[in-house]
Amino acid sequence: MIEYEEADTAVVRPRESEVGGRRIAAHAVPYSGEAGGPPYRFDPLERRVVERRTSGRVAVGPADTAEWARAVARCPAGPILVGPASPVEEIRGAYLAAAEGAASAGRPVYLLDPIAFPSAPSRAFVALFAWAPGAGARDDTALRSALEAAIPAGGLLPIVPGWTDEPGLLGEYLELLSAAGARFAAPISVSGDGDSRRVLVEARARFDPGSADRFFETIHHCDWPAALREGLRRFRAEAARRGLATLPPRPLGAGEPPGNSAAAARLEERAQELEEDEHRAALLHAAARWIDESGRDLAPVVREGNFAKVFPFGALAAEAEAAFRAPRTT
Fold it and tell me: Model pTM?
């Protein structure tokens, strides 16, 4: 039995993180509690598969757009992740209120596993649909609905050595997205800590018992970092072959200078290209954060030749300035 309880306030957690290679400044949580729905879901913020209970309590946020907007306004500048949604969204309306509240506060918004969509879609939204164990030939209705609502949409796949990196599952997943018209397919390296591996083994045994023993050996005895690198390489090659981008587009919030948003997006893309150089990739993400939080339109500063005087990452100044000067693709 699932008990839905109204939360006292809109829950928005300031959180410097990234999802699928894109920066996240905060996470709006319209439904809080791992109960009901599919037995497992993939959490792209924590980079782990989460087990869900068949009964329990779920806290439901307010169906008040203004309250979510006020909560978002207290968070650092930058994109907001909203979600996931809940099967009771049609009755409760907390997810849409959170999404529309974040957008009305001028923020770019990533919609995680939405089942309903803002009534006035704009460039402020991008929809992310996360794969979960047992999904198989997943129903793509929600993804198609997002695209029909003019919201760019695509998938997030956890790279699990010995499972989701296998050619059969990977090919089926990417073909499904491609056929549905997805704009992107982003791989995410799953966490390899002990608890994460335990849940992965249990999930594989539940949905594919015949592969459980082999998977147990793989997941506990493989060279985890090397296996993840190879899985990411294979995913990106197969996605490119199908014409799918491997980073979500960055949404544009109404309160953001377009030049700042585009430059931050290009720096995030450059960080993905250099992800094996962890230090430089971290600097690029820090530069994107600085642009988000700058509080002013930096394009005129670039045009006047003064950008290097205000930019705090000297080693990246030329690269960041080039990100502002590059032609816009959207």
Answer: 0.95
